[in-house]
Amino acid sequence: MIQRPRGTRDFGPEEMERRRFLENIMRREADLFGFREVSTPIFEHTELFTLKSGPNVVEEIYSFQDKGGREISLRPELTAPVMRFFVNELSNSPRPLKMFYFGQCFRYERPQSGRYREFYQFGAELIGNPGPGSDAEVIALAASIMRRIGLKEYTIRIGHIGVLRGLLARAGIDGVRAPPILQKLDKKEYEEARARMTEAGMSPEDIEHIVEITQTSGPVEVLRKIEGEARDHLEAVFRILSDYGFTNVEVDLGVVRGLDYYTGMVFEMDAPVLGAEKQICGGGSYSLTELFGGEKSFSTGFGIGFDRTLLALEREGYQSPAHQVEAFVIPVSASVRDEAFSITAMLRRNCVSTEVDLMGRNISKNFKHAAAINARRAIIVGEKELAQGSVTVRDMSTGEQELVRREDILSAFKK
Question: Which of 49-53, 140-144, 177-181, 285-289 has the lowest mean pLDDT?
């Protein structure tokens, strides 16, 4: 047998129903916030991702030459393609421009629990005004999605990249020297971060102050440790989130996101039930449009790891609604099969989910099959009943049966 590639999965009908159910909840929530869906190609020019994340990203993604010799990559995330789309075709759209998306992404990494080489991402981007209202709107959407799908335990940690960048700049570290330090601080690799700051000529006092700031977390009051625009911005974001009704929010100045394109607020969402690999969402404000050939535009957004979020829900005991068929039509003999197909078609035309016996089973086995597919009612099409212009309708949960006129079948189901 040919096996599926490592790091990929097959989804059966039950799993797909569970995934589509949650996916559609996310879509509806984004729609309630005024975000509209967009879609981009599953592969892009490799340059799109190296411009965003640096040349080393090629080692982590599926990158190849196509038959025309072009460098192509399967998308490892969706923010860069959406912003490329914005620069190409949507830059004259009214602001704020609110977009959301859902799709497959690919990364060449070691598969582990909740992490695959082919995975799914739900995300949103807002392009508009660089104010706390825009940042709070995006965080509120991500939090509303978690609340709507029924995740019981999750926390939102919010920081601001400007805090550490400002401290590094005052210590004489800016430009290309800052990102490598921020990346180590983001990963909590403090010894390597200290070594890089020492090599850059920073004093021990400045180094320890920066490490202390990255370890600052708690309620909004801890922002008193810092001063300036970043503090004012975060306090305003927290006030708006409180107005929206979200209280499971905390400051975490260790949320750094060391990549150059992040410009201000950054946030992460955790599901404690997942243990060490608990992050299910990340985002922040950023600037990519000028990198892709457009004019500088304020952007803020997030990406939700759909697979890991579903895993968190399942560990909390989540169960999606069971698959159900409204009607299962049973012809009792070959002579009534045409009438059975006609009844099936009539119900389907009127949006009643309906299956019909295709296997030629006897009536006893058909009842067992109706129960197995979770049919609400069985319609028994028999010769004697048809001679009276009727069929028998059986309630599969109670076993009760009634004779229903052929022309009243739809009314019985609608009722």
Answer: 177-181
**DSSP β-bridge partners for residue 73:** 44, 63
The answer to whether residue 33 is domain-embedded is: yes
> Do the domain assignments include residue 110?
yes
Do the Cβ atoms of 152 and 42 come closer than 8 Å? no
Residues 254 and 384 in one domain: no
Q: Is the peptide bond before 96 cis (omega within 30 degrees of 0)?
A: yes
CB 118 within 8 A of CB 9: yes
CATH number at residue 261: 3.30.930.10
SS3 (DSSP) at 413: helix
Q: Is residue 135 part of a domain?
A: yes
Neighbour count for residue 316 (Cβ, 10 Å): 13
Domain that holds residue 280: 13-315
Strands (E), 6-62: 36-37, 43-45
307 lies in a domain?
Answer: yes
Q: Tell me how far apart the alpha carbons of residues 93 and 181 are, in angstroms, rounded to a whole number.
A: 37
Instruction: Kindly list the strands in the beta sheet with 249-252, ordered across the sheet, starting from the edge strand earlier in the chain.
Output: 36-37, 97-106, 118-128, 298-305, 279-286, 262-270, 155-160, 249-252, 217-218
- How many helices, marked H, and strands, marked E, lie in the chain? 14, 17
Average pLDDT score over residue span 116-133: 95
Q: Do residues 154 and 226 share a domain? A: yes
Residue 68: phi, psi to the nearest 5?
-95, 5
- Percent of the chain having pLDDT more than 70? 99
| Residue 360: CATH number of its domain | 3.40.50.800
Residue with tokens 């949006």: 351
Angle at 289 (CA atoms; ends 285, 291), nearest 5 degrees = 110
pTM to 2 decimal places: 0.90
pLDDT tens-place string over residues 377-411: 999 999 999 999 999 999 999 999 999 999 999 99
User: How far, CA to CA in Å, does 330 sit from each of 339, 341, 347, 400?
Assistant: 10, 10, 14, 16
CA gap 55, 119 in Å, rounded: 22
